[in-house]
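Um, can you check?
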Amino acid sequence: MKEGKEFTLEELQSFNGQDGKPVYIVHRGRVIDVSNSKLWKNGLHMRRHHAGTDLTTDIQGAPHELDVLDRYPQVGVLKGVEESVSRPMPAALAALLERFPMLRRHPHPMTVHFPIVFLLSTTAFNLIYLMTGIPSFEATALHCLGAAVLFTPIAIGTGLYTWWLNYLAKPMRPVNIKKRLSPLLWLLAVIAFIWRLAVPDILHSFRPASLVYFFLILSFFPLVTIIGWFGAQMTFPVEKD
């Protein structure tokens, strides 16, 4: 590691780009001055990364290569932190990512939309059926529910992969919430799907069991909304005043 001034985390926080101060960030123990980057105006990058902090983990999930940091001067090192070696990766996976770079960023964003759409559509088409009495809407809801049962585990799997690859499986509140609610959502979808196949007229002739089934279907909406909210928060965080 290049020698230079040693900074503590507390000292680093003052180099946040505010009030004309320099914009410093840390990557693997290196303190880098990115004041000349237009993308770090006022010490905030992409509305989510703040200057004066250690961004080693966050940069793992960035859409650019690490050599971008080499364009800016290193002004020192973070006290008590040695530059770590790259996290070992299985050779087969490294070769796959080299051949198909899109697999580093895109699998989860590509797959997660399917269970979201299908589960919300299941709720919507069942509501339309109850309002209109047209059986084709209820049949469409069943088809959407079946697709959701299929795609939800795929979305969960790609989500865990992205978390491991881009965030080093770092404990994160949004991920912890998604890890708890996503399997629950899938389990409820499986129960509803099997129930509907076993009792095709569950909503045709309304009875107590129909009410339970109906509320089971309605539960998809808040669960999908919560899971989607925390997932989006990782990419498009809400700014705090």
Observations:
- The first strand starts at residue 5 and ends at 7.
- Strands lie at 5-7, 24-27, 30-33, 44-45, 49-50, 74-78.
- The CA atoms of residues 137 and 202 lie 14 Å apart.
- The mean pLDDT is 82.
